[in-house]
Amino acid sequence: MNQLKIFAGSANRPLAKAIAKYLRKPLGKATWTPFPDGESFVKINEDVRGRDIFIIQPTCAPHNDNLMELLLFIDAAHRASADRITAVIPYYGYARQDRKDEGRVPISAKLVANMLEAAGADRILTVHLHAYQIQGFFDIPVDHLLPEPVFAAFYRKMAIKDLTVVSPDVGNVKTARNYARILGGELAIIDKERFSGTEVRAGNLIGTVDGRNVLIVDDMITSGGTIAKAAHLLKERGARDIYVAATHAVMCENAVARLRDAPVKLVTVTDTIPFCNEARQLRMFKALSLAGLLGEAIRRIHRHESVSRLFLRRR
What is the pLDDT of residues 6-19, one digit of tens each? Predict the structure, then answer.
């Protein structure tokens, strides 16, 4: 472990410090400051020649600034002759732009992958991609972690009876099925239709929730519209208590207000993105840490051990 060094950008320092504490390693010394004209500046303040470097930086808001800071960090480590550079990206920004669904639009998730490789990244460690096929956008190894062990442990302790796990759209069915198997619940699916980035319609419900407690699972909460509409629909169909487990708390616009006004008892998220103050002040929101999961993955990558063994139980 002496060859392992952990660095962190400015996007999520609390998570980086928790990962470093788990690994019993200090965070590497670095400087990241903007120039007066707004350009980013990064400097690594210790020797990294021949070392195994892990740079922790989610590309959450401000997305472009955090992404640029990560690229500069990788380039600095590459030019300082680091032996291997792993970009630890707990939240992969631009992931929803993963395909060309209309004319004259970019595939931004692929472009970001190209930039990370061009900067000098040798490996990517990320959490719950919006679209799993993004792993194929890279020509370098990608370790894709899922938060299932953390969420499952939390809700298993709650011992919710008569549980039905609900996917708020067709795209999350596999994830919802895994949670249903782990927690011993039934499965239901909502047929969602999206009209814009903030406008959605929760249509038909496949399955039954009448008289049952419900856990809605999703990869992220952005505007809160999907979860709020789903919660109202489930209540109309006879659901009792409604819980939400979403990996990334993007929480833009009026997301907190929408969820506060929805018939939801508890919203659990992870700390891949810094938790907004508005949500932190409400009891219905709880953030679970992925520091242990990410720290163990980093340890296994450094030692050339299996990362997939962290998830064997879910199968």
Answer: 999 999 999 999 99
